[in-house]
Amino acid sequence: MMLRRGFILFLPRLVGLLVVACCSMSIVYMLACTPKGDNQQLALPRVHSPTVKEGYEAILQEREEQHHNYIISLKKQIAQLKAELQGRTEQLKNMQNQYPESLDIWLDHSNPEKAQANLLAFLRSQVDKAEVHSGVKLSTEYAAVPFESFTLQKVYQLETGLTRHPEEKPVRKDKRDELIEVIELAVGSLNKPEGVGKGKPRVYTASDFVEGIYRTEKNKGTLYELTFKGDTKHQFKKIVLFRPFGPVMKVKNENVNMADTLINVIVPLAKRASKFRQFMQNFREMGIQQDGRIHLTVVYFGKEQMNEVKSILENTSKSANFKNFTFIQLNEEFSRGKGLDVGARFWKGNNVVLFFCDVDIYFTAEFLNSCRLNTQPGKKVFYPVLFSQYNPSIIYGHHDSIPSLEQQLIIKKETGFWRDFGFGMTCQYRSDFINIGGFDLDIKGWGGEDVHLYRKYLHSNLMVIRTPVRGLFHLWHEKQCLDELTPEQYKMCMQSKAMNEASHGQLGMLVFKQEIETHLNRQKLSSKKT
């Protein structure tokens, strides 16, 4: 009886709870199912509204458009997935053709030791295919994959776009993390004892890192060459690492002693005594005072201004107590290739690094070390990409005065560009130059001889190191393209002349200078009237 009375009292409460629950469910359903626009929820038209039909039709039309756009998006995604699937299928077929054995058999999971050995063999084969231990023959100068250089602070990358200007954008985080990982791995490798040595081993840190170069070959992997400070001023540690689309592998760990490595700087010259005086100031500071392991060979054509050039050379010799120079005079028309070839063959000492240079080049002591570190007799030649300076009178035309030369040598897109179409400044051992056959002496005048030599090296088994360097600059000078040049040489000369003047934006400002001034004058007049 008591239970029946309690149930009767509880029943109204239960009914009330069910009513509340039903109302809540209805509200939630309306909120969830009401169609929404791009920015706000669409309100349902009131039942008694005169536009109820039009409102519902508008809602239905909008929903239909949304579904239509969604279907189009899905179709695009399906097409992209099909294309990607087809590409992956082609890659798998190529891999199966290259490795006819089944991948499961090759990496036998039932035998972990064999699988690991097979994987290691594959990675080693990737190292052998890449240009790590030796160069490979290439068909054209465009087939060479250039290196990019980096320090702890910056990465120097070639801009492959039409403007050929250095990009001043931050290095992507993944690239920065990759290079930090490589430096840390190299430091760890240097600090890892490789045998019982005498005394306490030196502890290397990232601050000992001097510079590095790297390049990625898409079907092989990434090659890194890192240089660290050695035990003395002229000693270095060089670490070569390779990432064959997997873990980084140590390829080589060697001591590099450059204390006795002499560089013979060969400069062909005709007239241009004032430029030679500027060159000798740079040579004295960087080559004689800071480096000290250097020889200068000047090959002079003709006799005009020759005495002035010889006087500059002798004065530098006396004031700097420098005797390591050679002056060769040729009574014939100027030919850059002939001058460099004669200067290289004139050397009678031991095998030496040759640096083919021009009188309008500025180099640093750090570059001379890069020249030594990236050349190896019978194995490597160095083709640095230098930074070419724009016309200072255009760059600093709006300034009160043009800054000093040292202040102008800044790598920025407003001040110059990577001269990646030039192959004239190069370092190689004399033995490699002689064995390759030297320059083509049939080429006269300006241009062509450097590309011909570069192609010879590419067609050989020597490794060509091509990378932008921060310590080699081409100083601006007015270029004269003579009528005696062949049509091809004249075209190359004019292209080089146009590239040397200013950036695309700066040249545009000059072209539209009058239009800009007219606009500014109109602005002044309108401001006065108001």
TrEMBL record:
Domain of life, source organism: Eukaryota
GO biological process terms, semicolon-separated: chondroitin sulfate proteoglycan biosynthetic process
InterPro entries: Chond_GalNAc, CS_glycosyltransferase, Nucleotide-diphossugar_trans
Coiled coil (UniProt feature): 71-98
Keywords of the record: Coiled coil, Glycoprotein, Golgi apparatus, Membrane, Metal-binding, Signal-anchor, Transferase, Transmembrane, Transmembrane helix
Entry membrane topology: Single-pass type II membrane protein
Organism: Climacteris rufus
Transmembrane segments: 7-32
Listed GO CC annotations: Golgi cisterna membrane
Full protein name: Hexosyltransferase
Family membership noted in the UniProt record: Belongs to the chondroitin N-acetylgalactosaminyltransferase family.
Keyword field contains Transferase: yes
EC assignment: 2.4.1.-
Cellular location(s): Golgi apparatus, Golgi stack membrane
UniProt KW Glycoprotein keyword: yes
Gene name in the database record: Csgalnact1
GO terms for MF: glucuronosyl-N-acetylgalactosaminyl-proteoglycan 4-beta-N-acetylgalactosaminyltransferase activity; glucuronylgalactosylproteoglycan 4-beta-N-acetylgalactosaminyltransferase activity; metal ion binding
Catalytic activity: 3-O-(beta-D-GlcA-(1->3)-beta-D-Gal-(1->3)-beta-D-Gal-(1->4)-beta-D-Xyl)-L-seryl-[protein] + UDP-N-acetyl-alpha-D-galactosamine = 3-O-(beta-D-GalNAc-(1->4)-beta-D-GlcA-(1->3)-beta-D-Gal-(1->3)-beta-D-Gal-(1->4)-beta-D-Xyl)-L-seryl-[protein] + UDP + H(+)
